[in-house]
Amino acid sequence: MAMKIRLARGGSKKRPFYRIVAADSRMPRDGRFIEKLGTYNPLLPKDSEERVKMDIDAVKAWLDKGAQPTDRVARMLEAAGVLEKKERSNPKKAVPGKKAQERAEEKAAKAAEAAEAAADAE
Q1: For the chain, where are the alpha helices, taking DSSP H only?
Q2: What is the pLDDT along the chain (122 residues), one digit of tens a residue?
Q3: Where would a tag sit more exposed on the chain, N or C end, judged by fewer CB atoms within 10 A?
Q4: Of 79, 45, 86, 29, which Cα lies nearest the Cα of 59?
Q5: Rounded CA gap, 108 and 37, in Å?
Q6: Which residues contact 56 (CB under 8 A, 6 or more apart)?
């Protein structure tokens, strides 16, 4: 049985609230789970202690049993110091989109024209 440590959504429409659960990977996101390990409330400020609450001992026990955390839960565990930080590669992170690149090229062309015009006027 492939175990996952993942988020199960609760709360009403536009008011999300998540439980951190250990569940069989074949179960639906909000379906049956084996154990509740904590909660995550994204509506609270990032520096709030109530935003992410976890039973660290239970999480470590599940990790020792072979449960795999999802990406979002892994980031929470890294912040809590349970997992070591993983190097993530996103080479396109700092590259602007097509429209922004086109605007930058247009702006550079206009600046070059203005510089030429100023040089010709002198």
Answers
A1: 56-64, 71-80, 98-121
A2: 689 999 999 999 999 999 999 999 999 888 899 999 999 999 999 898 899 999 999 999 999 999 999 999 999 999 988 888 888 777 777 788 889 999 999 999 998 888 888 777 76
A3: C
A4: 79
A5: 53
A6: 80, 82
The bridge status of strand 52-54 relative to strand 15-24 is unpaired
| Distance between CA atoms of residues 65 and 24, nearest Å | 13
Collapsing DSSP states into helix, strand and coil, what is residue 3?
A: strand
Assigned CATH class of 3-80: alpha beta
Amino acid at 85: K
Strands 3-12, 68-69: pairing kind? parallel
What's the Cα-to-Cα distance from 36 to each of 24, 32, 55, 89, 105, rounded to whole Å? 13, 11, 9, 31, 52
From residue 72, how far is each of 16, 77, 102, 110 by CA, in Å?
A: 15, 9, 34, 44
